[in-house]
Each structure stands twice: as structure tokens, then as C-alpha cells.
Design brief:
Elements: H1 18-32, H2 36-43, H3 47-54, H4 62-72, H5 76-92
Helix pairs in contact: 1-5, 2-3, 2-4
């Protein structure tokens, strides 16, 4: 797996796309068959916060991502790997 190619003039142009992050988290949640209400309760975060993350309106902190991954019973690294794969796919097929 290669690192994504960032287009821009400087390192400050590199940003993680919150929509991709949210889509991946929602996919993991749906695969487990749990609602936002259930997941937010298990992860001890607000349902509106989880909804905003899944809609790409907010980016989760590492702590929040860890709580979500534990609540889904998956490794946090699995979620990160899926996010990276989605980024790479969208960069290679815009």
C-alpha cells in the first residue's frame, strides 16, 4: 500500500477528507447491523456527534475513533486502513 499523493503547494494543503472518514465509519456500523443510537451509546458519545461524523461535518479525534472501534469490536487500525484505501481509490479514479 502506497501513501496517497497530495496535490498542492505545501504540507498545509494536506487534509483528511471528513466525508470519506464518515462514509467508512458508517459502513463499519452498518456491517455490524447497529443503529447510530446504539453505537453512540456503546461508544459513550452523543448520537448527534456520531451523526455529524458520519455525514462528514466533523472529524473524529483519535479518542473518539478508538471508542467507536471498540464499540464495533474492530481494531481501530482496520478503520484507518479502510479510510486510506478509500482515499487511494478516489485519488486514482477521480
Amino acid at each position: 500500500m502506497g501513501y496517497p499523493v497530495f496535490r498542492g503547494d505545501s504540507m498545509s494543503d494536506m487534509q483528511l477528507n471528513p466525508v470519506i472518514v464518515g462514509e467508512v465509519i458508517a459502513r463499519f456500523r452498518n456491517k455490524k447491523g447497529v443503529t447510530q443510537e446504539v453505537l453512540s451509546g456503546l461508544a459513550d458519545i452523543g448520537r448527534t456527534h456520531l451523526s455529524a461524523i458520519e455525514q462528514g461535518e466533523r472529524k473524529p479525534t483519535l479518542e473518539t475513533l478508538y471508542r467507536i472501534s471498540c464499540a464495533l469490536d474492530v481494531n481501530m487500525s482496520d478503520i484507518v486502513i479502510a479510510i486510506e484505501a478509500e482515499i487511494n481509490q478516489k485519488e486514482n479514479h477521480p
